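Hi R.,

As promised on Friday, here is the backbone we talked about, encoded as structure tokens. Could you run it through your design pipeline when you get a chance and send me back a sequence?
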């Protein structure tokens, strides 16, 4: 992922990002593979409520999504649009599900 080069990300955030990507490794390929990792980080952040401990999860979700968008933007024409549409649908569904709880 382009934006997450060692030395540019605090170690604790990089650890969280790598853990999320490892746990989602079997869920897809390419930029779409990062969506399950983003979803897992957002679920963890939401579960923390207003507690500060959820901040690392929210930052990890942001970094993963930003990096996936960068990767998609560098791909074939139309890749970013397709990825953004899928990400928007999946994340909106996640938030709808969490709000219903």
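Update: got your reply. Pasting your designed sequence below so it's all in one thread:
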């Amino acid at each position: 992922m382009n934006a997450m080069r060692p030395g540019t990300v605090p170690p604790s955030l990089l650890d969280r990002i790598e853990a999320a990507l490892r746990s989602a490794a079997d869920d897809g390929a390419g930029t779409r593979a990062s969506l399950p990792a983003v979803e897992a980080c957002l679920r963890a952040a939401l579960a923390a409520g207003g507690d500060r401990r959820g901040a690392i999860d929210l930052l990890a979700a942001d970094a993963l999504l930003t990096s996936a968008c960068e990767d998609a933007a560098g791909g074939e024409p139309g890749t970013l649009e397709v990825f953004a549409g899928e990400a928007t649908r999946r994340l909106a569904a996640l938030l709808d599900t969490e709000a219903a709880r």
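One thing I noticed while checking it: Residues 11-100 form one domain.

Thanks again,
M.
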